[in-house]
Amino acid sequence: MTFSIVARDPETDAVGVAVQSKFVAVGSVVPFASADAGAIATQSLANVAYGSDGLDLLRAGHSADEVVAELTSADDEAPQRQVGVVGQDGSVAAFTGAECVDHASDRQGDHYTTQGNILANRATVDAMADTFEDTDGGLPERLLAALHAGNDAGGDQRGEQGAALYVAKPGGGYDGGNDRWIDVRVDDHDHPIDELERVFHIYDITLLERVAPTEYRELAGDTAESVLAALSELGFYDGAPGRAFGDAERDALAAFQAVNNFENHDLDALEDALARGWADAAGEGEDRLVNAIWQGISRLDRT
Predict the structure, then answer these.
(1) pLDDT tens, 111-153?
(2) How far is it, in rounded angstroms, from Cα 203 to Cα 214?
(3) Hey, is 21 helix, strand or coil?
(4) What is the spatial order of strands in the sheet that 2-9 belongs to?
(5) What is the b/e burial string over 39-66, where b = at least 16 CB atoms within 10 angstroms of the residue's CB?
(6) Environment class of residue 278 by beta-carbon count within 10 Å: exposed (0-12), middle (13-18) or buried (19+)?
(7) What one-character DSSP code corresponds to residue 119?
(8) Residue 1 pLDDT
(9) Closest residue by Cα to residue 1 from 158, 107, 162, 125
């Protein structure tokens, strides 16, 4: 009752998994990734040992096909298993056991594999693959787009509950201390993929690095007034919202930045992001401020 995509970005050596299922906390079961090995999704009657053991085999130099063969040949319950594997060497493979509940299938392409079981249709798997191939942007955006497409095409027969996005990249973890570049999940939600994307945007502007802007915009006019109204509503600004953004207004933005841990971007970059992203941002209050910042920085490449 799960569909997932496992993929690699050969330009950054990032590897990851995006998954949705009518299963609580699916992110604790399906995705495995390591920057020095590859990424694996283990599902259907999931054998979580496929994750750690498979990464060890990839790390030892085995191809994705060899990993799948090794894992399934030693497992008496392999006919009920499903697994997708992408190695850092670019190899790709998947296995859908003959006893997985229909619809169950998989599809591979360059640097990715999609797979699912208890699906509404084959279109779910194909939509994920086609969308991943056709979507521009970084690996996280392409994985999320594929997940949305699979769900829109039919998705899990039983509905929605949990979703997760896990991506490993060399030195990508917090302060460079490990490879856990992106690790966000939604354990129980009516629309887990939408919620996963919302949480990822917050994660992105809080923890991930972007190339600094080459040109900065300042807040002014209607946009400045709207931003200040939002900051005032949240208690960060005491004055009457106006159309200018001076020292007191920047102090209010700095207070908002500190409370929300947005120090990953300096104050000038934050103001620039709001100036560029406000018109396209959805929501109200804090939600719109956060969404505007993400809209504004999303044009910048991640480092």
Answers:
(1) 999 999 999 999 999 999 999 999 999 999 999 999 999 999 9
(2) 23
(3) strand
(4) 105-109, 112-117, 2-9, 14-21, 162-168, 180-186
(5) bbbbbbbbbeebbebbbebbeeebbbeb
(6) buried
(7) B
(8) 78
(9) 158
pLDDT digits (tens, 9 = 90+) for 205-224: 999 999 999 999 999 999 99
Give the position of tokens 């799948």: 68
Chain centroid, CA 293 distance in Å: 17
Distance, in Å, from the CA atom of 92 to the CA atom of 24, rounded to the nearest integer, reads 28
Structure tokens at 51: 């994750």
Helix intervals (H) in 120-266: 123-134, 139-153, 192-207, 221-233, 247-259
Task: Name the pTM for this structure.
Answer: 0.94
Q: Tokens 């700095």 — which residue?
A: 254
For residue 71, with 0-12 CB atoms within 10 Å meaning exposed, 13-18 middle and 19 or more buried, which class applies?
A: buried
Amino acid of residue 110: D
